[in-house]
Amino acid sequence: MDFDKIYDRKNTNSVKYDFACENGVPQDALPMWVADMDFKAPDCVAQAIKDRAEHGIFGYSAPSKEYFASVAKWFETRHNWNVDTDKFVITAGVVSAISAIICAMTREGDSVIICQPVYYPFAEAVRSNARNLVVSELVNDGGYYTVDYDDFERKIVENDVKMFILCNPHNPVGRVWTKEELERLGDVCLRHGVFVISDEIHFDFAFGCRHTVFATVKREFEDICAVCTATTKTFNMAGLHISNIYIANDRARKLVSAELAKRGCGNPNVMGIVACQAAYGSGGGWLDELLVYLEGNIRFAKRYLDEYLPEISLREPQGTYLLWLDMRKLGLDDEKLSSFMLNEAKLWLDDGYIFGKGGSGFERMNIACPRATLKSALDRLYSAVRALRK
298 with 278, same domain? Predict the structure, then answer.
């Protein structure tokens, strides 16, 4: 795969590239916000879709035994996770699954805890479903984030929390939680009867460390969690809308399945089925090459910032393909920083404050792109900061 090749994604109904005006963004701003990649999916995925398209009939479809076998083999090979294929719930995406699980496993007014700064749809899903949002802030030690376990447990007790939404690898701060960290979190949840939604959609992106699936840490954890996974981030196929949610607890799985049925969520996208099966079956080599390239992008960005933009701090992420840029030394409040990025740097990133209070003064940058695109973005940022210094 030539990851240096630049593709024109405009006029493809791309959320990332085609809707700047609708979002109040200058047309010439380089988009590096939403977490999809500027790389083509593996050839095996495109070929599987082509083969299925040639059949010409796109009726109601469901995953086959071969589909589940490919998923199970990937989990075992890549994550040392042996799964029972009868325990899966197939959904159109992780975000929609989280919303359904919240409604299935809690009642209106119940408390749900998250650790911010974190992927902002978590808070949206809690609030929009009339649940009480409880926040335990992560501790930022020079760009290395940890959980405040005392605060986490205290807030669970004080608010009678029923559910915890875990992000692992963590978006946007880039932590891949260790087995020991996950065990501490899980033990707290076990003590207080808290159900865990473990969003592990980025679990194939870990650099210099090993990702641990929450359900594998302890046998007891498997019974109190739903592990949310998908091929969508790993193989850049978010538009195909398919995810594999693993819920070992029979009662919980039935409740979630009933909630999805109540929402009218039926059979999954036929192209998502064939693409997922092909990706997990034959896409491993492509991913291995991609991981090397992304590590190169991370190192390139770190070197560039250290040499040319010391005002902007970056701790290299352990996971995801997202950089969490600390821009607080620029001295701009959130509104001014957002305007500066769009109108001066001509970069469309995700403003840090949308991830929670601890994200104020930060920007999230998606670096899953050709290195020339990344350099162009950093050059734009350099020019804008240099002008700001004057």
Answer: no
